[in-house]
Amino acid sequence: MINLDKHIKPSRDYYLALGLEGSANKLGIGIIKHPKGELTATNRAEVLSNVRDTYISPPGEGFLPRDTARHHRNWVVRVLKDALAVAGLVGRDLDCICFTQGPGMGAPLQAVVIAARTIAQLWDVPLVGVNHCVGHIEMGREITGAQNPVVLYVSGGNTQVIAYSKNHYRIFGETLDIAIGNCLDRFARTLKIPNDPFPGYNIEQMAKRGKNFVELPYTVKGMDLSMSGILAFIDSLAGDMFAGNKNKLLVAADGSSVTPEDLCFSLQECLYAMLVEITERAMAHVQLQQVLIVGGVGSNERLQQMMAQMVQDRNGSVFATDERFCIDNGIMIAHAGLLAYRMGQTNELWDTVCSQKFRTDEVYVNWRDD
Amino acid sequence: MASHIIAQAQAYLPNIPLTMVSQGAEALVFTTTTHPCLPVSEQTDTTYIIKYRPSKPYRHPKLDAQITKHRTISEAKIMHKLGQLGIRVPRLVAVDAPKGIIWMHFVGKLLANGEMSSLKNWLWYLERVSAPGSATDAGTARILTQVGREIGRLHMHDIVHGDLTTSNILLEQPHTDMNDTDWEPVLIDYGLGSYSGLPEDKAVDLYVLERALLSTHPVFSEKYNAWVLEGYALGHAEVGGKLGGKKCTETLRRLDEVRMRGRKRSLLG
Amino acid sequence: MPNLFSLLESENCQIQTQLSSAMPDLIPTATYISPDLKKDFHPGCGPHSTQGTTTGPSDVVADKGAIDKDRPTEASDSTLGELRARLTTLQDQVNVFLTDRMKLGAAKEEDDKDLERRILDDGVDEDDVE
């Protein structure tokens, strides 16, 4: 049994942590409260505030590091003030300030860590560096109550199948090239779909109107998968469609022409089937019955539905969070950071350098002992 | 266990007594003592495996039918080919591709803790239950070297497995005089297998296994992998002599690249 | 106020920023250090503003002509507000300096490569060497 209360402030029976997240185009700041003792179904973490502002790039463009960092830099104080006001706290009330130390885009990470360092010194509160992926996993576990799930982490920059073993979140499967969200975003750009609220959402809406399934390459490699070939294939199909070139794949079984909606539908069906398959493979391999879906793409209803169908055939259960928690946010950084803080993990100022390639399995998860 | 899937299997296989062994990721595995073609008078008590790939309700029907058929056929073809080449593999009995059914001879046995003798269960048993040090002793080294050797031989024949994990390697004792810690590995589950002479595909095969070792057996994964690669070179030399050595070097060089790609891969959105 | 952030670090150069307080003003300064050059930056006496010359949106975004929703707010009349404005000036100075260094570095590297090619690879095709 782990003692999580060795570092509690005298005269307090709770903890407060603020988390700053800005590894991609979302700037999120949240404040979480942990009661003393182990977190259980009756002794839960409490979200005091969870504020987010998203940088949205012009249609047909991805978000560039420089403009994203500029967005974070120029909004961070306003978002921070909001987060404190909603929680009804002042900076000195906090036990620790948690920030995303990676992985992510260099410039936005930099912009946000500078804000974290500044307020830590201003208020004299310790800093805790947090791995973005571990933030997603821990927040997902807390919100859904999933004890020991296989985690499917799907976002703009990541596609991983993860399970816990011996104080680390181990990566069992992952993409061998591009991330799922990246694949969807890039296809959205090919189709010139708007980036607001986010490209994947707009693809999902179009996919709902698609009827004809176009066969695409299906590239699962054990528990890993590859998506760049599928993207290249469907991009060229879309190219033929727009140019009016003859292509027998663009003629549906009933003789009608394949539409952009059909392509969105087919792309989702193909990619999500691959994700569900590698998740099932990991479940069978490590003999676990629960699945937790985290990350921005995790809010996709079709993916959740397919996962539920798979899990049903294994008598297991699937857990997912809504967009407040699965889309990048500050609260998950606060939560995971606070768990580490309660185990005595803090970062000195010199040790707050961010890393674009901070791998999930590098983190020492000493707040779990199962 | 989902009973409707078992019921479906039984409906496809009327009058065949089925005993459920395991539910893998994409297939149910049953045992039976009935041979599909032999008349009743010639049935023996030999045990067969029936591997059934059920339809996956989450997949689009078109995709589902295509995957089930494709994987069943390619698994059967590869197993047959490997048998001809003298590589240790479960012997094929019968195939029904559209229904996703393969019959084969039984391999493996039960471990002391009642689990099937997959390499995963065996290593877990050594790491968790058995005497300290046994997970890295000479016996384990020999088994993992043999695993590498089998993969090397596979690759020398331009066949890639596609899903190398410690779950997909069974251990068996083909000779009656083998003692409790003496095993021969058999690679199974060729559903994702394919024919390829490309160093890239072979390197990805090795990379997938390397990662499975790291995630499933984190404490000793480096040692395990080093033994596998040692055996991998042996397998090449045995089948291909000097040319085998050259091919092996080529694939291992590519493996370095695949590893780098994994580590350096951009995590940007 | 003990403040020292290393903003930029590579193998052979770094930029350190310091904050000195000559009450009631906070003056940020920066130092660039590399083996061949050391340079100090001081925002000077101004006027300063939070609208920098190098801190706007990138050309790709600016060319799309949308309203810039991510502009920094104007500096307030407080000590911290003035610090923000001075920092923007300092940032402009550093950005201009580093961009020039980068261009210079690229040109130099091109020269070096050229020299290398002429001396080492003169007339020899790469594929012939093994």
Automatic annotation (TrEMBL), chain A:
Its EC number is 2.3.1.234. It is found in: Cytoplasm; Nucleus. It catalyses: L-threonylcarbamoyladenylate + adenosine(37) in tRNA = N(6)-L-threonylcarbamoyladenosine(37) in tRNA + AMP + H(+). Gene3D superfamilies: 3.30.420.40. GO terms for biological process: positive regulation of transcription by RNA polymerase II; telomere maintenance via recombination; tRNA threonylcarbamoyladenosine modification. Binds 1 divalent metal cation per subunit. GO terms for molecular function: chromatin DNA binding; metal ion binding; nucleotidase activity; tRNA N(6)-L-threonylcarbamoyladenine synthase activity. The keyword rRNA-binding does not apply. Its cofactor is a divalent metal cation. It holds the Pfam family TsaD. A divalent metal cation binds at H132, H136, Y153, D328. One of its GO terms (cellular component) is EKC/KEOPS complex. Keywords: Acyltransferase, Cytoplasm, Metal-binding, Nucleus, Transferase, tRNA processing. Substrate binds at Y153, V154, S155, G156, G157, D185, G200, E204, N300. The keyword Metal-binding applies. Residues 47-334 form the Gcp-like domain. Belongs to the KAE1 / TsaD family. This is N(6)-L-threonylcarbamoyladenine synthase. The lineage of its organism: Eukaryota, Fungi, Dikarya, Ascomycota, Saccharomycotina.
Automatic annotation (TrEMBL), chain B:
One of its GO terms (molecular function) is protein serine/threonine kinase activity. Component of the EKC/KEOPS complex composed of at least BUD32, CGI121, GON7, KAE1 and PCC1; the whole complex dimerizes. One of its GO terms (cellular component) is cytosol. Keywords: Activator, ATP-binding, Chromosome, Cytoplasm, Hydrolase, Kinase, Nucleotide-binding, Nucleus, Phosphoprotein, Serine/threonine-protein kinase, Telomere, Transcription, Transcription regulation, Transferase, tRNA processing. Residues 15-269 form the Protein kinase domain. The keyword Phosphoprotein applies. Gene3D superfamilies: Phosphorylase Kinase, domain 1 (3.30.200.20), Transferase(Phosphotransferase) domain 1 (1.10.510.10). Pfam families: Kdo. Its EC number is 2.7.11.1. Component of the EKC/KEOPS complex that is required for the formation of a threonylcarbamoyl group on adenosine at position 37 (t(6)A37) in tRNAs that read codons beginning with adenine. The complex is probably involved in the transfer of the threonylcarbamoyl moiety of threonylcarbamoyl-AMP (TC-AMP) to the N6 group of A37. BUD32 has ATPase activity in the context of the EKC/KEOPS complex and likely plays a supporting role to the catalytic subunit KAE1. The EKC/KEOPS complex also promotes both telomere uncapping and telomere elongation. It catalyses: L-threonyl-[protein] + ATP = O-phospho-L-threonyl-[protein] + ADP + H(+); L-seryl-[protein] + ATP = O-phospho-L-seryl-[protein] + ADP + H(+). It is an enzyme of class 2 (transferase). It is found in: Chromosome, Telomere; Cytoplasm; Nucleus. It comes from Babjeviella inositovora NRRL Y-12698. This is EKC/KEOPS complex subunit BUD32.
TrEMBL record, chain C:
Keywords: Activator, Chromosome, Nucleus, Telomere, Transcription, Transcription regulation, tRNA processing. The keyword Magnesium does not apply. Residues 106-121 have a biased composition (Basic and acidic residues). Residues 38-60, 106-130 are annotated as: Disordered. It comes from the Eukaryota. Pfam families: Gon7. GO terms for cellular component: chromosome, telomeric region; nucleus. It is found in: Chromosome, Telomere; Nucleus. Residues 48-57 have a biased composition (Polar residues). Its main location: nucleus. InterPro entries: EKC/KEOPS_Gon7. GO terms for biological process: tRNA processing. Component of the EKC/KEOPS complex that is required for the formation of a threonylcarbamoyl group on adenosine at position 37 (t(6)A37) in tRNAs that read codons beginning with adenine. The complex is probably involved in the transfer of the threonylcarbamoyl moiety of threonylcarbamoyl-AMP (TC-AMP) to the N6 group of A37. GON7 likely plays a supporting role to the catalytic subunit KAE1 in the complex. The EKC/KEOPS complex also promotes both telomere uncapping and telomere elongation. The complex is required for efficient recruitment of transcriptional coactivators. Component of the EKC/KEOPS complex composed of at least BUD32, CGI121, GON7, KAE1 and PCC1; the whole complex dimerizes. Belongs to the GON7 family. This is EKC/KEOPS complex subunit GON7. It comes from Babjeviella inositovora NRRL Y-12698.
